[in-house]
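Annex B. Sample input.
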Amino acid sequence: MTAQRTWQGPSAQRRRELLLDTRTIAIVGASANPARASYFVNRYLSSTSDYTIYLVNPTIDNVDGTPVYPTLADLPETPDLVDVFRRHDDLPSVLDETIAVGARAIWLQLGLWHEDVAHRAEEAGLTVVMDRCIKIEHARFHGGLHLAGFDTGVIDSRRRSGL
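Annex B, continued. Sample output.
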C-alpha cells in the first residue's frame, strides 16, 4: 500500500516563475541511452531553451560529446536547479549534494515522490517540485503544450490560405 501524499507542491504559477528565473540546470542521473527519459529531457532543454545544462553521472564521461560530471560538486558553476532522475532510495543523498553546492531548487521527475526529502529541502530554503516532468512543464509554459497536454503545434484544423 502506498503512503498518502500530504506534501503540497508549488502552484503552476510558481513552477512557471521557477523555470523563468532558472539559468542553469544540472541533470542528475543523465544517460547516454536515447531510450531513457533523462536523455530526452537533456536533448529537449538543450535545443529549445537558453538554459546552461550540466549532466551528472559518475558512470559515464559524455553524452553525445557533452561532458558528464561525476558529482554536483564537480560542476564548473552552481546550478540554479537540480533535475533528478535517480531511484527513490538515492534521493536523500542527492538532496544532500544539492544543498551542499548551494542550488536554489530540486526537481524530482515523474514517478519520484519523497516527502522527507521535500520537507528537508524546504527547511534548507530550496524550492521543491516532485513527480513532474520539467520538459512537459517547460513546453506547457512556453506554448508547446495545451493545458491538457496536447502539442498545439502539430494538429491544426484550420485550413491555410493559398493551399
